[in-house]
Amino acid sequence: MERPLSPLTEEQEGELAERQWRKANPKTGPKSYRTPQQRDRDRVLYSSALQRLAYVTQVTASESGHIFHNRLSHSLKVAQVGRRNAERLQTLVARGEISGGAARMIEALDPDAVEASCLAHDLGHPPYGHIAEQVLHEKAVKYLPDGFEGNAQSFRIVTRLSVRDEKPGMDLTRQTLNGLLKYPWRRWPADLTKGQKRKWKWGAYEDDVEALAFARKGWPPESPYELPRLCLEAEIMDWADDLTYAVHDVDDFFRAGLIPLDRLAATDGTELKHLETLLVGARSEDPHGFPDFETERLARAAQVAASRAASAAPYRHTHGDRGAMREFGSRLITEYLEAFSVQNAGSGVKLVIDDRAHCEVEALKMLVRVYVIRRPSLAVVQQGQMRVVGELFDRYFEAAVPPARGGNRHLFPPGAGERLEKEGASEAKRARITVDLISGLTETAAVKLHNRLTGGWVASALDATAAIG
User: Fold this and answer.
1) For burial by CB atoms within 10 Å, which of 37, 47, 355, 356 has the most?
2) How far apart are CA 80 and CA 64, in angstroms?
3) What letters, b where the CB count within 10 A reaches 16 and e where it falls short, cover 433-458?
4) CA-CA-CA-CA dihedral for 437, 442, 444, 445, to nearest 10
5) How far apart are alpha carbons 317 and 314 in whole angstroms?
6) Cα(71)–Cα(125) distance, rounded to whole angstroms?
7) Distances (CA, A) of 100 to 11, 13, 87, 96, 349
8) Mind listing the pLDDT tens digit for each residue in 220-262?
9) Model-level pTM?
10) Residue 48 maps to which CATH number?
11) 78 lies in which domain range?
């Protein structure tokens, strides 16, 4: 995979010059022992929005003695991989292995800003992840032109919803905010872009355009006719997200007996043929979400990756098996991380991700989709999750109506209630406040609230209030 990278903006050039001066003059640098980017990283790390992710599942909740990754453990690993990749690139520059414009762009990276962006990339995921995201969008888009999108919600949290002081959001630097923008555009009313990507994903809501403009200052203005380019920090975050998710989820579900790495690695090809059939079904069911690789190539790439697990049998929870899987995950992450490079291209600079590694990462992600996410047993659970989220939206949106018109705003926690009083007159405002509330719940809180609102659980008033405070 190759993509051209935009040159440094004037502001990035200024920041780079200042960083180089501080390094050369440590005794006359700023009084604070933290750089602005280090402060960003600390603010995200200590936020309640990040803490909440411990109670939001990655694929499925821990059960039956298995410990699966949740959104918090995933985010921490993405941050570690993203930071290491930024540091790796800067080490290559220091050794003289990367030069010219590519070196200049890498020198402008700040590993703390990359880490902060990675930590924040999943803050907007609602309880139950993509299933709830779909339900909230279908509900909200009736009243809001851009509905709900988890990436846009993450940007909204760090720029508007988080509470630190009198300023809205976390007051992060432009470098960190731009690094968070995996999709640095809005959702336009009509899809006028080349392809359909803007229709399915976007990084900021219509009422957060000022924050988007701040984060993207110096970059080409947003256009409905072409997709804006990601900054290098966002490219690093995106790749760290993909490879981390691919490796640790396959590890989780091989240990749980759901992904048959041992059978995929077998030379008889029986499971490989079965995987090809599963991939064909997945492509037919969701063509827009399917990778840009041929089905047969994906299956072969999955087999190659599985062969590195060095396991000829299902996972048995022995000391040897545990060590082998640790080695398997470490080897893959190191290999995929090093597949990411920045190179000079004529008068410009381009991002290059090794095509074989890119295909393997996409193949591993598809193993989770076809062997786990599309299982009938998980589909049954997801139906219940969709009902919980949908009915919570209906109840709270109805309650958000002004009391004179039959609403009951006492159902809302104080912060949301204040927002309703200040800005909740229109349907659009009430929908956005309702979405902000529900998407910020933990999964436990969502279930408890649904039970209490529908009369399925007897609890004290204090306990019920605590669940959404």
Assistant:
1) 37
2) 29
3) bbbbbbbbbbbebbbbbbebbeeeee
4) -30
5) 9
6) 8
7) 19, 15, 18, 10, 9
8) 888 877 888 999 999 999 999 999 999 999 998 888 889 999 9
9) 0.91
10) 1.10.3210.10
11) 2-127+149-215
